[in-house]
Amino acid sequence: QLQLVESGGGLVQPGGSLTLSCEASRRILDRYVIGWFRQAPGKEREGIACISSSGYTTYTTDYQSSTKGRFTISRDNAKNTVTLLITNLQPEDTAIYYCAAAGSLTTTRAMCTTADYAMDSWGKGTLVGVSS
Questions:
Q1: Pick from 25, 63, 32, 31: nearest CA to 47
Q2: Contact (CB, 8 A) for 7 and 125
Q3: CA separation (Å) from 36 to 83, 84, 90, 132?
């Protein structure tokens, strides 16, 4: 079974940036669509950005004007890693960030926007805290 491990979380000040990484346990990450999700305290999990297995297609939810343009997803299949760059971090970005994998026929939009989408694997998450 594919295992995913997130890293790169931490405590940052408002306005700062972080790059989160999602690494797979086996060198088959290029067979999967990968998405980043987050869950803030007391809130439901939400999709942030998803990327196709090839890396050619991405989808970012941009669900609020406050999040628009601040999340960038990319992947390096040779390094078996998918990254999420978050810029201009705000206190409302405080959450546990998870990456997940789904089969290559999955569309990035469906993965990012469908509640309880059937993923093949989830990581355990990395905590991001934003505070002055």
A1: 63
A2: no
A3: 9, 7, 18, 25
Q: Is 25 helix (H, G, I), strand (E, B) or coil?
A: coil
From the list 16, 34, 27, the residue with the least C-alpha distance to 122 is 34
With beta carbons less than 8 A apart as the criterion, state whether 32 and 94 touch.
Answer: no
- Is there a contact between 50 and 104 (Cβ–Cβ < 8 Å)? no
Dmax over CA atoms of the chain, in Å, equals: 42
pLDDT in tens, 66-123: 677 899 999 998 899 999 999 999 999 999 999 999 998 899 999 999 988 999 999 9
| Bridge partner residues of 129 (DSSP) | 11
Measured over the CA atoms of residue 74, residue 125, residue 45 and residue 106, the dihedral's sign is positive
